[in-house]
Write a structure and sequence with these properties.
heterodimer; A: 458 residues; 14 helices; 2% strand; B: 232 residues; mainly alpha; globular
């Protein structure tokens, strides 16, 4: 699954991060597994490839890590189980993704409904230079289309830039960039958000307390995201960042532009991931060639798999070799759904061998997480948030969009299980969401209003 | 109560959650189509003619009911196919979820969605200031709406079970009974604001449907007694 990166444009700085999607999450694993257990890795990979799990990318990179420990025992039964496990794990993975997406959307909708700041129009980002306050409909449409073109081209440029950087191994630059943008996100946006929420609820807070709270929040966030931290906390931070980013988008994108951009982005995602020359695909393939994890940043992982070796010494060796990749998703077998995140850095947590697993059975349970790019989170939340903000049908529309997006996500994951390679996560969900938004707002709302007026039930 | 149902019985199993959301989706699509029809009908008719509008509304409601049942049927077909796939994929040759459970979950999905759509704007408005029934309408608007919604959610659940059971065993009379019940309940709601006319029969129907579904699911008076007396 590929989720493309969105540049997060803040009005302050063009700190756009594009994270293209990463389909093959676990390229790195094979590489250093090789060092450790070459034979097993080979088997594991082969066997992983056969695994139907949705989390496998064709390159079987993900499988490598985990597989090694289990390979000897599983080899024979894997073939058969592979098919069986697909759906069994499939449902679990879907839920593992449902929950964070739902949480993110809930946060965004709750904020939009209560805090007035995010629905006021206070200007636009520099990436959408054309204003929509024009008198005629045609002019407005034209402006929104132009805005979209500008935005998409910015995104394309950023993605290509990132791919080039990655190709030429300018890792430090990329890491620095990601760190900078996550810094900004965690501190600045949180400050603004907190300020607005406190204003809405008329709660007084003095500056020292605020400073303390934000400092703690930001520092822990940085550590969690870029380094090590408990899984739940990292997931929570990623959700928070996505929600903040989505709120920024909702506030600063003019109405029609937002919808057109959503549509265009899903088309772009589709092309960037599936076309052979698409930047995201190139990114994925390059990462797979090098057997490195594709950018750990900007991806939400639903489970951490520790690639723990069978024996203790392996664990130690593995632990050390993992350090160089700060955002490495070691030992994860998931399919990834690469996405771009706008200046968000969600580094995958480096798998810290918190529990040295020495038995195959334990390792077995940990497998299979699913990865979804943060850009996907952001755009889903933007869609639902915009529905909550601007629809006159209020909650019905929001609810309809929510269900539509979840179903889209389900279908996408199903396709992922079928195709077993990186797929764009946006198009189906966004298409459903858009269809449902427009139809619910215009068609269902009058119907339901009339029904409610007469208190009729259907 | 519906939410409690959801928490206790569905939230554990991921497959059920997916079926639930898909059920809600199907209901939503049926609503969409029916409101499309109604919208077209309204737009192409005279907006000033009250009787016509009311007639159109009734037509819209009935049509929507029929569409909902049609979509329930479609959903049943989809779930049948899915079950076959699940059986093929499962380890021990039997599906991780039975068709009855699916029927239950699908019913809850439909019910939740329909209940949500009926109630949620009301709830949002209820949070704000205002007086109920200030223009001479009934003062019990919120209460009755709440009860009606609850009965409808439960009814959808039971109808789901009955419907799927009917489809499974090809008891066409069961299916028609469900459709007729649904039409009846919707029709009864036309009696509003004469609440006696709509709420009481609806509850009676719900009790009947509940008992029927219970019996169909293999329950019996004995089981019930054992359950209530906490015997082993």
């Amino acid at each position: 699954m590929i989720t493309f990166m969105n540049n997060s444009d803040s009005e302050e700085e063009p700190c756009n991060e594009r994270t293209s999607l990463m389909s093959a999450e676990s390229p790195p694993v094979p590489s250093y597994q090789d060092g450790l257990q070459t034979s097993e890795a080979g088997e594991a990979q082969a066997h992983r490839k056969r695994r139907a799990g949705s989390s496998r990318s064709p390159n079987n990179t993900a499988g490598g890590e985990r597989a090694d420990t289990r390979v000897p025992v599983r080899e024979s039964t894997l073939e058969n189980e592979e098919e069986e496990l697909t759906l069994k794990y499939g449902a679990k993975h879907v839920i593992m993704l449902f929950v964070p997406v739902t949480l993110c959307m809930i946060v965004v909708v709750a904020t939009i409904k209560s805090v007035r700041f995010y629905t006021e129009k206070n200007g636009q980002l520099i990436y959408t230079p054309f204003s929509e306050d024009t008198p005629s409909v045609g002019q407005r449409l034209l402006n929104s289309v132009l805005n979209t073109i500008v935005m998409i081209s910015v995104i394309i440029v950023m993605t290509v830039f990132l791919v080039l950087l990655y190709k030429y191994r300018c890792y430090k630059f990329i890491h620095g960039w990601l760190i900078l943008s996550s810094l900004m996100l965690l501190f600045l946006f949180t400050y603004i958000y907190l300020g607005e929420v406190l204003k809405t609820y008329n709660v007084a807070m003095d500056y020292p307390t605020l400073l303390l709270v934000i400092w703690n929040f930001g520092a822990v966030g940085m550590i969690c995201i870029h380094w090590k931290g408990p899984l739940q906390l990292q997931q929570a931070y990623l959700i928070m960042i996505s929600a903040l980013m989505a709120l920024v988008f909702i506030k600063y994108l003019p109405e029609w532009s937002a919808w057109v951009i959503l549509g265009a982005i899903s088309i772009y995602d589709l092309m960037a991931v599936l076309c052979p020359k698409g930047p995201l695909r190139m990114l994925v393939e390059t990462a797979q060639e090098r057997n490195e994890p594709i950018f750990p940043a900007l991806i939400y992982s639903s489970a951490m798999m520790w690639t723990v070796g069978m024996a203790k010494p392996d664990t130690a060796a593995r632990g050390q070799s993992q350090q160089p990749w700060d955002a490495a998703e070691d030992g994860r077998e998931h399919h990834r759904i690469p996405s771009h995140t706008d200046s968000q850095m969600s580094e995958m947590r480096s798998p810290v061998p918190t529990h040295p697993i020495t038995s195959l059975e334990e390792l077995e349970e940990e497998e299979r997480g699913v990865k979804l790019g943060l850009g996907d989170f952001i755009f889903y939340s933007v869609l639902v948030g915009k529905a909550a903000a601007t629809a006159s049908g209020d909650w019905n529309t929001t609810l309809a969009c929510f269900v539509a997006i979840l179903i889209g996500l389900c279908l996408t994951l199903l396709l992922l299980a079928v195709f077993k390679k990186a797929l764009p996560a946006l198009p189906i969900s966004i298409t459903f969401g858009l269809i449902f938004y427009f139809s619910t707002d215009n068609l269902v709302r009058p119907f339901m209003d009339t029904l409610a007026f007469h208190q009729l039930y259907i | 109560p519906a939410f409690g149902l959801f928490l206790f019985t569905i939230a554990r199993d991921p497959l059920r959650i997916i079926i639930l959301i898909a059920g809600a989706f199907f209901w939503l699509v049926s609503l969409l189509l029916s409101s499309l029809i109604w919208f077209i009908a309204v737009k192409s008719s005279d907006p000033r003619d009250e009787r016509l509008q009311k007639g159109l509304l009734i037509f819209g409601v009935m049509f929507s009911v029929l569409l909902q049942e049609a979509f329930r049927f479609l959903y049943y077909k989809l779930l049948r196919k899915a079950i076959e796939g699940l059986v093929a994929l499962s380890e021990d040759g039997c599906s991780p979820i039975s068709i009855q459970q699916m029927a239950y979950v699908a019913g809850v999905g439909f019910g939740l969605m329909s209940g949500a759509f009926s109630m949620i704007n009301l709830l949002a408005d209820a949070l704000g200031p205002g007086t109920v029934g200030i223009h001479g309408d009934s003062q019990l608007y919120f209460l009755t709406s709440a009860f009606m919604t609850m009965v409808l959610i439960f009814l959808h659940t039971f109808w789901g079970i009955l419907f799927f059971h009917g489809c499974e065993h090809r008891h066409w009379w069961e299916i028609t009974a469900v459709v007729v019940m649904h039409l009846t309940v919707s029709g009864l709601s036309f009696c509003n604001p004469l609440y006696v006319g709509s709420l009481v029969p609806s509850y009676l129907l719900m009790a009947a449907a509940a008992a029927w579904a219970y019996l169909l699911s293999g329950g019996s008076a004995q089981n019930l007694r054992r359950f209530l007396l906490c015997e082993s």
